[in-house]
Amino acid sequence: MIPATLSRRRFSDLGEQEILALAISSEEDDARIYRSYAERLRAEYPDTAAIFDGMAAEEDTHRQRLIELHRARFGDVIPLVRREHVAGFYARRPVWLVENLGIERIRAEAEAMERDAERFYLRAAQRTRDAATRKLLGDLAAAEAGHQARAGELEAQHLDEETRAREDRLAHRQFVLTWVQPGLAGLMDGSVSTLAPIFATAFATQDTWTTFLVGLAASVGAGISMGFTEAASDDGELSGRGSPVKRGFASGIMTTLGGLGHALPYLIPDFWTATTLAFLIVFVELWAIAWIQNRYMETPFLRATFQVVLGGALVFAAGVLIGSG
């Protein structure tokens, strides 16, 4: 079997017709990507969706011009040359990988698409000695730069400051509902609920390895439980909280991490060294929870601190008393 890298053509080996065919297929791909972004954003961010519709239309216009040039120079049959056929040609991230991210990431990805294309064409034009090919690549670079300018015009047309601020607030709210809220709930559950079994085991046995195993089991078990509970409790359709899979992963992973934070010190053989380090980690965890509540949930810092520290202290004390009994 021939490796994929060896089966690709080098850009320097492409003829002018193949370069033109590559440009045509790239314009088609980019227009399709922009339309996918527009459909992904249309329901919640109609103004930004309109920008991507306009950018897709611009790509269609350039594709038509390239096809007309190809027809005039080489005829109607366009060779099948795509990005993946050419070694070193800029690649696009899969649409499914980007469209599930936030609106700011999608905007940034679109800007990067245009910059990547322009830079590639400029570098390619500098490396060729054929005048016609150099002109063609230079024209393509100018077209990509024009795309960026046109994108700015479309943004000014569809996305004034008030609209941009409204969409940013909506994106922030969605981020909080989908990631921060379930992640915070998981972190609180993992950090607080595992305190009792871990420190009860620690003070009852004073065996660091046994304490670590109990902490590991409690953390992983709680993470799995919280993850499935979050994913199954709300499909996000009516509440607007977003994908249940994303929320489940956020809750489950943060629950596990919250418990592992003060379980990992018990890999240290010395009991009091491990316990002292675990105390410090618990302190950091509880303050981190209070900070997240204040930063993202707009909970007054003193109230968040009181709730988290008091709750954690009570659970911790229960674990120590039970373990010492």
The major beta sheet can be summarized as: 2 strands, parallel
Bulk shape: elongated
What fraction of the residues are assigned to beta strands by DSSP? under 5%
Mean pLDDT: 79
State the domain count: 2
What string gives the helices and strands in order?
A: HEHHEHHHHHHHHH
Gyration radius, to the nearest Å? 28 Å
Could you write a compact summary of the structure shown?
By secondary structure, the chain is mainly alpha-helical. The chain has 12 helices and 2 strands, in the order αβααβααααααααα.
Please explain how this structure is put together:
α2 runs antiparallel to α3 (46-74), α2 (16-41) packs antiparallel against α5 and α7 (161-193) packs parallel to α12 (301-324). A two-stranded parallel ribbon has the order 1-2. It is built from twelve helices and two strands. It folds into two domains: 4-159, Ferritin; 166-324, no CATH class. The chain has helices at residues 4-7, 16-41, 46-74, 95-99, 103-127, 131-158, 161-193, 195-205, 208-233, 244-261, 271-296, 301-324, and strands spanning 9-10, 86-87. The protein has 325 residues and is an all-alpha fold. It is elongated and about 90 Å long. Mean pLDDT is 79; it is low at 1-5.
